[in-house]
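Box S1 | Example of a co-folding query
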Amino acid sequence: MTTFSASDVPSMTGRTVVVTGANSGIGRAAARALAARDARVVFAVRDLEKGREAAAATTGHIEVRQLDLADLSSVRAFAEDFTEPVDVLINNAGVMIPPLSRTADGFELQFGTNHLGHFALTNLLLPRIRERVVTVSSNGHKVGSIDFDDLNWERKPYRAMAAYAQSKLANLLFTSALQRRLAQVGSPLIATAAHPGMAATNLLKFDGRRRVRHLVQKAAAGLFAQGDDDGALPTLYAAVARIPGDSYAGPSGFLEGRGSPKLVGRSAKARDAEVAHRLWEVSEELTGVVFPRRPLQTA
Ligand SMILES: NC(=O)c1ccc[n+]([C@@H]2O[C@H](COP(=O)([O-])OP(=O)(O)OC[C@H]3O[C@@H](n4cnc5c(N)ncnc54)[C@H](O)[C@@H]3O)[C@@H](O)[C@H]2O)c1
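Box S1 (continued) | Returned holo structure for nicotinamide-adenine-dinucleotide
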């Protein structure tokens, strides 16, 4: 079995890594580890103030830039301002089981933020990406399915957990479809994915509106969850290890938490190439952002 810890991250001197949601949790821990290996790390954050606070507490070459994944105009503005090369993009930011709410463009918040925001960001940055795109999914993808008839919960009663699971399944389908497209155009870039197991981050923050569910989650997190640094290891592994495109990294320890990261399996639904292709096409329509026609890095 491979063993991998933050000290196995190679020197990142001269490399730029963009981490969405780098002000908190797993993203922050991954960003810290990459900065410690001399990467220039761009904190792509919704709240500039929180981003600056997190950056001030991080040693290394950090830049903070505003990005609201729940607003496509913000995603476009971020990508337009970003004219320099990006070696690794880490699509980490996420929201989990909020009450029904919508993005600026009217998408259900979890599908819109976790999937569509990152879909648009990745495709807009792709001509400047040199190595890989890492997208953070979840074990929760295993109970997810993609409801093409009602992706945004406009017709059926809202079930926040099912919407989270759909968005995390979408993260894996996106990774596979992206990898396929990259290979088709002869690009050496790779798309990988990761999940942290369970980590005690702000994602599990107590929300008075869902008292019982959150108390159960808090208890589970207290018993089983890892800290942010351990939770970030699969992300780091997916970002730097010599692994093939479309790899999915997760933890190997007890209850899939703790322990060295390794490549892990995914649900049958996450391996469905037809669904991945259809989701890609629908995501292009919904966001108005397409796989770039401009030349990508080629082998
Ligand atoms: N913590 C866990 O146990 C766990 C388990 C499985 C998967 N994950 C995944 O890990 C990733 C990181 O989550 P975390 O646990 O570190 O939680 P976290 O709440 O600590 O971090 C989430 C980050 O996403 C950012 N974010 C949310 N909405 C945004 C938006 N509209 N625009 C820009 N940034 C936005 C937040 O500001 C925050 O920085 C998520 O994708 C989550 O689904 C976490």
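The pocket of nicotinamide-adenine-dinucleotide is lined by residues 20-21, 23-27, 46, 67-70, 92-96, 113, 136, 138, 195-196, 198-199, 201-203 (CB under 6 Å). The two ends are 31 Å apart (CA to CA).
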